[in-house]
Structure formats: structure tokens, C-alpha cells
Fold this protein.
Amino acid sequence: MKRIAIIGGGISGLSAAFALEQHRRAGVPLEYVLFESSPRLGGVLVTERVDGCLVEAGPDSFLTEKPWAANLCRQIGIGDQLIGSNDADRKTYILVKGRLVAIPDGLMFMVPTKLLPAVFSPLFSLGTKLRMAREWFHPPHKADGDETVASLVERHYGAEMVDRLADPLLSGVYGGEASQLSVRAVLPRFTEMEASHGSLGRAMLAARKKMMQATDGPAKPLFTSLKDGMQQMVDAVLAQLSPAALRLDTAVRSVQPKDAGWLVSAGYGSDYFDAVIVATPAQNSATLLRATSADLAAELRGINYTSSITVTLGFGRNVRSSLPPGFGFLVPRNEGKRMLAATFVHNKFPHRAPEDRALVRCFLGGARDEQILKLSDDEILHVVREELRRIISLTAEPLFARVYKWKGAMAQYGVGHLERIQSIERQCERLPGLALAGNGYHGIGVPDCVRSGMEAGSKILLGLGFAVSQPSKSALLP
């Protein structure tokens, strides 16, 4: 019987546990123990029901094109609970000089694939519009090394595109800045498209046509969630795991090699395991592994994190009709606001609020404003309400408000991130029985974390000499 420790009970650690549980039920002689320092499992995936509304404290969805989270949902028996975003209503605005301007049709993650809507949009100056037209003739360019997202976008479209689109988009998704994030780690398709086509616009249009030709039936929604919220995924995974394997409120102090396995020190004692999966933020992983490998710990500490705040406000009658149609808006840095973005949740997904309610979710913090974490919930709420008043003239008293703070939750993939990860993986290869998982390595989204945990579980099983296969569904569900 092989014993495996999993440290960290977010969705990465839970996915690793589920991967091991699959094989345990299929007859692999193993047992696992999952350690979580807090009193609950699921990490940032937290869903509340408040006054008839569904409120997400952390991520509210995941990208449909990344299959791993949806696949997990199907494996754990909640595939029929997956829902898509209301893409017919998908309109997003940018705050420009104090007023909201809709992102023009054909703009695919800051890349114009249709020139006319962009040319007639007040979102861009004449100079940027001319750059967009010239960009279609941009020659192929293969970068010698890594660079920032801002550097690549500015080379194609100019600084205004960075300020008005690239930076706000990355602030909303990554909690980071275009001037700091690695284009090879964050937007690898952009470097590939630039090398093959030159023009990002032509490359994106070609990719879109190819995808449409290969797709049968209606287009898939951009985002996917669950009918009862993202915590439904956590609860369904937990229903598959043995409660005896879960150690809540148990902080792990250190992880060290011992004999042919690992000694995990947690709570008031230590225990021996044949292998260990560390599924904590990279900075925490560095602390756990510093006695094992100073070099590995140093590389892990080099992965920085930012914090985030979500504020959800529920409003009563007449507010929904007064809000702009669409999914929400983004706020560029030069607008002088503390809010990064806001989502009109009642428009984005069905059944998130009663028909006579409006649900507005606001985002703050990130690399732009770490200091806001020091404010009290009441002070943060005051900031949000004042800025909503100025941006969309929303003065109604909310029926309820929820403030959630996530300290150090967003991994930042700076320039050179991929090289750092290669170094980390090489060092892990020298430590048999160790695997890392989480959002600090190969993607920060929920699907990336699921894949990270599942692959960590497979790596450990292979290292212990077990054949890794996909058990049948009948072996997964009780």
C-alpha cells in the first residue's frame, strides 16, 4: 500500500485527490491524505445564496475552450449542471474619459478582425485606427526571447491600445499589468501568430474561420459555469472522496525527503508518505520545501502574487432596466478609479437573480492597487458605491452587499516565467515522489488548476510504478 500526501485543498489539490481516488477505486493499492490549513475546502471557489441571488465570492465561470474543468464536472456526475454564458447579450464597455464606450464588434481580445466597426468606434483615436489598418500588413516577426504583453501589443497597435484594452483586460483576468506580464506565458498564441502571419488581425481571422469550419452546430459560449455556482464543483468532488482522508484546519509546516519517501510535518506530529503533491501557492510551497532544496525554493519564491477583492451588490426593482445592456465594463488605469471592472451578473448567466433584481459584481485590487486590501469592508463598499454612481449613475440603495478579500490569490507570470517553470520542473525531477500543482505554473484559470492537479496525480502514480489509465465512469460514482 502506497501513501500519498496532498497539501492544499483548493481545486488543484481536490483534483489531485480525485485523480488518486479514481485509481484507488480501480484497484490500485494506495491511500491518500489531503491537508488543508483552513476549515473549508475549495479555496477561492465559494458560492452563497443571498436574498434569492447566487453570489460568487471568487471565479464565477471558466473559459469554455479549456476542457479540463467541464470534463471533471462530467466525471463527477454534474455534467448536466453546466451552463453557458448569455453570449447574445455579450457586450463589454471601456470607461473612456468618464463615459462607457462599447468594445466594437470583431474585436477578439484586443485584436481587431473587422476594421469598419473599429474605425467608426469612439473607443480609439484616429492614430490608433490608422495603426489598425497598417497592422494587416505587418511582416512576420519571430522574437528572440520573451517580452511583455505591452511590448508586443504596442508594436502592432500603439500605446493607446495597451492603455485602453490590453491593460484593463489583463487587470481583470490576471490581476496584473500589461507592462509586467509575459506574452509567452499569458498570450502564447500572440507570439505564434506574429511569427506565422505577422498581422495578429489576419491570423486571428484565419483561426476564427478555421474554427467555424471545424465546428458542427451552434457556436459554443465563451464562458461556462454551473447552475448552482462554482462551489457545486467542489461539493461534487468532495462527495467522491473519503472523509477520513481529509485533514481540515491542519497546517503543514515542512516537507522533507526521508529514506525513499517524504516526511510531512503537520499539526502536532509528522507522518511518512511515499510521495507528496504540494498544491499551495508557489510562495507557500517555497516555505515548505526550503529545507529540501534551497534552489527550488528560490525559484518558487520568484513567482509573485497579487491580491483581489470582489464586491457584489444586489438591487431591487427598476435598477436592472436602468443599467447598460451587456456583461459589464472595464476601467483603464488612466481613468483614476480604484475599480478594475464590473460585471452585470444578471445578464451574464441565467437564473443568477430574480427577474426583478439586478446583481452587480465589482473587482478591485490587483497589481494596480494592493493598498486597497488595507481598507475595511465598509470603506471598500463606500469606494465601490461612489464609483458606480460616477460611472453608471447608480445611486439606488443595495438590498445587500458582500465583500470578499483574496490575499495573494493571483499568480503573476512575469517575463521569463516559462524559463523559471522549466527550471522548477528540472529540479523536481531530481526529487522522486514530489509533484507541484496550482495556478502558479501553467495557467491561472479553474480549468488550468484542474489539469494541474490531475497531472500531478498521474505523475505521482507513474513514479510509484503504477499504470495510469482513465477508469470507467462506473468506477467513479457511488
Notes: The two ends are 23 Å apart (CA to CA). The first helix runs from residue 11 to 25. Residues 2-43+233-303+413-475 form a domain with the FAD/NAD(P)-binding domain fold (CATH 3.50.50.60). The chain has three domains: 2-43+233-303+413-475, 47-88+305-411, 106-214.
